[in-house]
Amino acid sequence: MDEREILSVGRLVAFTDGVFAIAITLLVVNFDEPSGPDSELAHQLTDQWPALLAYFLSFAVIGRFWVVHHRVFAIVRRLDFALLGFNLVYLAFVVLIPFTTEVLGDYSDTTEAVVLYAAAIGGVATFNWLMIRHALTRDHIQPDRRFSAAPFAGTAALVNPGVFLASIPVGFVSPLAAELMWTALAIAWPLRRRRALAGVQRTPRQDASR
Amino acid sequence: MDEREILSVGRLVAFTDGVFAIAITLLVVNFDEPSGPDSELAHQLTDQWPALLAYFLSFAVIGRFWVVHHRVFAIVRRLDFALLGFNLVYLAFVVLIPFTTEVLGDYSDTTEAVVLYAAAIGGVATFNWLMIRHALTRDHIQPDRRFSAAPFAGTAALVNPGVFLASIPVGFVSPLAAELMWTALAIAWPLRRRRALAGVQRTPRQDASR
Amino acid sequence: MDEREILSVGRLVAFTDGVFAIAITLLVVNFDEPSGPDSELAHQLTDQWPALLAYFLSFAVIGRFWVVHHRVFAIVRRLDFALLGFNLVYLAFVVLIPFTTEVLGDYSDTTEAVVLYAAAIGGVATFNWLMIRHALTRDHIQPDRRFSAAPFAGTAALVNPGVFLASIPVGFVSPLAAELMWTALAIAWPLRRRRALAGVQRTPRQDASR
Amino acid sequence: MDEREILSVGRLVAFTDGVFAIAITLLVVNFDEPSGPDSELAHQLTDQWPALLAYFLSFAVIGRFWVVHHRVFAIVRRLDFALLGFNLVYLAFVVLIPFTTEVLGDYSDTTEAVVLYAAAIGGVATFNWLMIRHALTRDHIQPDRRFSAAPFAGTAALVNPGVFLASIPVGFVSPLAAELMWTALAIAWPLRRRRALAGVQRTPRQDASR
Fold it and tell me: How confident is residue A4, by pLDDT bands cut at 50, 70 and 90?
């Protein structure tokens, strides 16, 4: 039964990569095509500075989730319907990111844009956590590789969905404060990753058993 | 001749995944980019509530068809021109879904939007059934795996295209009644799936012969 | 050196499939999103009847070229830069099809739309022929499989680009006459394919040597 | 550990191919859909001549970068986080090309459009160089294949990002001069490639050691 299962994981991954590739490319619709005479072009382009910022932010966010998906599904050895389902709901939120990025780029200082953006990223982060948690508890991960996926479904990893979901009520009081919460998370992230990686590298290699 | 045939199925599947990934991602064009002053943003976003509903509905529908395609083509062992043709017509209807979803999101209480949506989904469901039927009758499925594909091309599976196609004339009388038919199908679906799966699990495993 | 070459063909094929999948899915932009009151919806949708026709025509055309690419590259055993180049120019014309389809759907009885459409399809057909010709003459095809690719680069296969390119001057006189030329080609095509296939099936199987 | 690493490179390549395929296909949004009466169609289409030129230019540029990526990653044997990161930033610039192409097509004689286009291509070229440089210095390339990747990260290869980045200040003085710099690069490129290839072919084959 092994081969068929590998094929299935392969196809899930291929489909997911397709959705990620399109979602990340659609971020470009974020920019408004200039129109009007040449003399207004400079003005119209420089006005899109917040959109460029939002573009690189969302590119980094989608890219980071893709890297996590990549790492975890490299060691998933089989699928069940629930895992397929989690992956689809997860993708449904990923696909919303280009739209919420566009709104954030155009209305960066409003509660609505901030809440919408936080809800989409929070949804991705939540289902990312649940999906990996499910794969671990249902034993869909290669036993000798569990340590590679565990950090993404542990208590510390709840910080990511936690900060985004917590920034929703904060955004109702102050959009700027919510954006600062995201920035803090982004700054803290490399530090946390370094620690997590150190943990992985301390683990003895067990590849021989594969 | 085996290897080349596997390659061919692999490429059909990769192409189909690409089309599915793009169609599911294009559902996001469903949302209208807000414009105008900040004060109107909340209003413009909350007005898109039916579009959000239509988005998740179509995401679930496309996702479900993708899962069925995934399951069936994992056990297809060879292609003929007719199967390629069925798959292309099937995809031609899948690709229409983002457009019909957009119209449904904007005009959810009209006969036209309901009929258009039912026709697109009905087309996908019909060709899904015909395609799997063809693969089974022409013996393109691995013999020891036929039980995995058979439920999708049996009489009971005609319920899916049947309900959607039947909702077209109903939609001319009452759009709401047609939408309720879809809802009933969605509610009944997990029950029917559970029964079908029970059937599969009762079947003895025959993988050793592979 | 074999493995690396197979990998390269695999990636060319994956990239090409991606472009085809997106081009075929973008055909849906062909349809104009309705706007305005509910009462005008029926009118706005039925007005798009020529666009629906153009959609299915282009879906069939792109699908057919994809099937040919699929068949030929399944037996390509190595690439050179010229083959990569032919494939890229070929794709540059494929990518134009959604746009030319849109123009044809909106302006179906004008010389401009017909000429534009014929030029794009003629470009695809021409480079399709040149690309397969190149693969055959430079010996990039598996020797025992040449008969599978040869019909697409023979004299008879020049009919496809020939008819489309010839319809360009015809379109300047009568757009309708050009469209009838395409229809005649589409009607004649299954007959020609049947004969070509008969030819292939007469050829003895030589797979054992692989 | 080998197999998992190959899988990872495979998935990076698949994702990258997806992004390239979509970016190259989105170039078609470059063309404005005609509107208005039939009599204005010819005028509206011929007015898009610079857009067609920009389309083929960008198709060639994206295609060329894809070929380089294809060649280099065929011999990458493992990934680290930095290489993933370089690849993502590189893709972030690739994705900008359809937008910058559109602006260049519409405003080809302005400083703004030329600078924007040069910045995007310059960014791709710079990160292309850095990424391959990193792969070589960190020993991620198959040792017996280094000569295949080395020309893309050597001093001579700095000409590509150099000319594009240098054309940014030039564009502020004269947009036309900047465009001529790109043309000169394009004309010189086949000559330089021939020399580089000659170098590769002089290198003795070492494939046996693989």
Answer: very low
- How far apart CA D152 and CA D164 sit, in angstroms, is 16
Question: What digits encode the pLDDT tens for the residues D48-91?
Answer: 888 888 888 899 889 889 988 988 998 888 888 889 889 999 99
Kind and range of the H or E run holding B14 = helix B2-26
Say how far apart CA C42 and CA C60 lie, in whole Å.
27
Output phi, psi for B141, to 5 deg. Answer: -100, 145
Q: Determine the Cα–Cα distance for residues A191 and A105; give it in Å rounded to an integer.
A: 28
Confidence of residue D161 (pLDDT cuts 50, 70, 90): very high
Distances (CA, A) of D133 to B146, D8, D67, D128, D141: 52, 20, 17, 8, 10
d(CA C14, CA D70): 11
For C158-162, which contacts have Cβ atoms below 8 Å and span 24 or more sequence positions? Answer: C158/C129, C159/C185, C159/C192, C160/C125, C160/C128, C160/C129, C160/C185, C161/C122, C161/C125, C161/C126, C161/C128, C161/C129
Q: CA C11 to CA D112: how far, in whole Å?
A: 36
Residue C169 to residue A58: CA distance in whole angstroms:
49
Q: Sign of the C-alpha dihedral, residues A23, A58, B34, D120? A: negative
By the 8 A CB rule, do D172 and D111 touch?
yes
Joined tokens for residue A43: 């003005």
| Backbone torsions φ then ψ of B142, nearest 5 degrees | -55, 125
CA dihedral B51, B55, B57, B61 (to 10 degrees): 150
Torsion angle of C-alpha atoms B40, B46, B52, B53, degrees rounded to 10:
-150
Among all chains, which residue has been given the structure tokens 């070589």?
A: D136
Confirm or reject contact between A42 and chain D (CB < 8 A): yes
Work out the pLDDT band at D209, boundaries 50, 70, 90.
very low
The residues, ordered by sequence, that sit 6+ positions from C8 with a Cβ below 8 Å of its Cβ are: C78, C79, D70, D74
Chain A residues near residue D100 by CB distance under 8 angstroms: none
Bridge partner residues of D141 (DSSP) = D76
Nearest alpha-carbon partner for A18 in D22, D9, D182, B180: D22
CA distances to D11, D76, D88 from D138, rounded to whole Å, are: 20, 11, 18
Residue of C22, C25, C29 to mutate, interface with A, max A Cβ within 10 Å = C22
What is the C-alpha to C-alpha distance for residues A191 and A202, in angstroms, rounded to an integer?
17
Measure CB to CB from residue A41 to each of D26, D98, D110 and give the nearest one.
D110
- Supply φ then ψ for residue C178, to 5 degrees: -65, -40
Q: Are A141 and A149 in contact (CB under 8 A)?
A: yes
Structural contact between residues D110 and A41, judged by C-beta atoms closer than 8 angstroms: yes
Q: Which residues of chain C have pLDDT under 50?
A: 1-7, 201-210
User: What's chain B's Rg over C-alpha atoms?
Assistant: 19
d(CA C73, CA A39): 50
Kindly report the pTM of this predicted structure: 0.83
Of C3, C92, C110, the CB nearest to D41: C110
H-type alpha helices, A107-174 = 111-137, 146-149, 159-173
C-alpha span between B178 and C41 (Å, rounded) = 18
D102, pLDDT greater than 60: yes
pLDDT at site B205: 43
Pick from C21, C45, C74: which is nearest to B19 by CB?
C21
Cβ neighbours of residue B152 under 8 Å, at least 6 residues apart?
A: B68, B71, B72, B128, B129, B132
B19 and C14 within 8 Å at the Cβ level: the answer is no
B144: contact with A, CB 8 A cutoff: no
Rama region for D36: left / alpha / beta (φ>0; ψ in -120 to 50; rest): left
